[in-house]
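Revision sheet: structure tokens.
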Amino acid sequence: MAHSHGHTPAAWTGVIIAFIGFCTGSVFMVVPSPAGVIASLGLIALGAVVGGVMRAMGLGQSHAAGLTKAQLQARKEEAADSAAAASPATATATATAPAAQPQTAEAHS
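Predicted:
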């Protein structure tokens, strides 16, 4: 498991916003206010969006966090093997594929 699980500004910000939304939603459930509950659900969703945007900005944990050097090397080798295996097949498939024939209105009559 990752030793830095969630210890990033993106994770903390997203969780805090979602927690505030959860708390306010709980209050609005007790005090019958459907509009408040719906607004709180929006706040919870906003926490997820803010966390995702912050992660995309580089303030979150990378996909490789918590992996050993051997695991990272294995992933790089798998990606290189996949790319090498895919590129000749793609070139062959496009070279042997028949060209699409344009269809006219007369062909369907």
